Structure formats: structure tokens, C-alpha cells
Amino acid sequence: MEKFDPIKMIELVKVEDPDPEGGITLFFQEDKTLKIKVVDGKLVSEFV
Prior knowledge:
Blueprint: E1 12-16, E2 24-28, E3 32-39, E4 42-47
Antiparallel strand pairs: 1-2, 2-3, 3-4
């Protein structure tokens, strides 16, 4: 779960569901953004 350390204890500000790519984008304070989508049947997440 270390992958998600950058967003621990940071307030969620906005959710785009679905986002332009068909996934979900979560926007947090401090300009942190997490994109989640399904690729080949698996959940994939990335910070942008």
C-alpha cells in the first residue's frame, strides 16, 4: 500500500466518473490526482 502514501490523510476534492478515458479520476488537495481504469480485466491506477 506504499503506492498510495502520497494521498494518505489528504482530502478528496473532486471525482470524475467516468473521466474522458472511461475510468475514474480522483482529485485531491495539494494537486494530487489518481486515475483508475480497467486494462485487460485488471484495475490499473496511476498518479498524474
